[in-house]
Amino acid sequence: MRRLGILFGLVCAMAVGARAADREVTVFAASSLTNAMQDIGRGFEAGGGAKVKFSFAASSLLARQIEAGAQADAFFAADTEWMNYLGERNLIQTATRKDILSNRLVLVANKDSVIRLKIAPGFALAQALGEGRLAVADPDSVPAGRYARSALTALGVWDSVAARLVRAENVRVALTYVARGEAPLGIVYETDAKSETQVKVVDVFPANSHLPIVYPAALTTHGTSAEAKAFLDYSKSAPAADVFKKYGFSVLP
Fold first, then answer.
1. Structural domain that includes position 36
2. Same-domain status, 204 and 232
3. CA 174, CA 166: separation in Å to the nearest integer?
4. How many domains does the chain have?
5. DSSP summary character for residue 219
6. I need a surface site. Which of 17, 152, 182, 213 has the fewest CB within 10 A?
7. pTM recorded for the entire structure
8. Start-to-end C-alpha separation, the chain
9. Which secondary structure element, helix H or strand E, spans residue 54, and what is its range?
């Protein structure tokens, strides 16, 4: 009887542990969403939702981690291409996918910089760099870098700076290079620029110089719990929209 009691206690403990694990939601999100998503996670938990664990990185890296088997419940990307990448591999629940946010692309300098530029076709970006380099997220894979390359190509200045890039692993790292004065100029999202007091916006890239910056969100095929669905729904709620707007994002209908 004593052994049966111990066995029953272990089974109960395992069941409680499993329920606790079920109450946790793992969210992979683009690094540019860091501040907003952390606030939204706290709001979700404060309202009685499950504990939310975040992993922030470049959308490209996160998508590949999910492809490799990472146990994410939801994915928030900074462009449609990496969400498409997972969709083509049947790694997201397509019915849950929705474009939720948009952003703008900006040229930034250190707050103490005297550089002044007006972004226009053929603008003097290379000359403004002097002996320095342009900080961008890796344009070969990271959404922010791809938007940057597209914009600079459309404006006719890509060739003049392509060999003078500091290729960052994500947009927040590119922002840090400029904030620390390690690069005189960088290209980041407007929301990132607003989050860093050590940089200032030199100018905003024309919307027609690159594809629209769209953030899609979806549950992964692993994210089948009620808690995961509840968090995704909360991220599209009015309280979450207020948080996104506070950080400078445009909330899509």
1. 2-102+215-251
2. no
3. 8
4. 2
5. E
6. 17
7. 0.86
8. 61
9. strand 51-57
Q: Is the pLDDT of residue 48 over 50?
A: yes
Q: Which residue has the tokens 């899609």?
A: 216
Contact indicator for 25, 73 with CB cutoff of 8 Å: yes
Residue type, 130: G
Here the CATH number for the domain that contains residue 113 is 3.40.190.10
Q: Are residues 157 and 171 in the same domain?
A: yes
- For residue 222, give Cα distances in angstroms to 32, 60, 84, 228: 24, 19, 17, 10
3-class secondary-structure state, position 165: strand
Distance CA 108, CA 115 (A): 10
Query: What token pair was written down for 43?
Result: 């709001």
Q: Are 203 and 225 in a shared domain?
A: no
pLDDT 10s digits, 137-173: 999 999 999 999 999 999 999 999 999 999 999 999 9
User: Residue 15, Cβ neighbours under 10 Å: how many?
Assistant: 10
Tokens of 238: 């009015």
Q: Looking at the predicted structure, is the pLDDT value of residue 187 above 70?
A: yes
The answer to whether the beta carbons of residues 30 and 77 sit under 8 Å apart is: yes
| Max CA pair span of the chain | 84
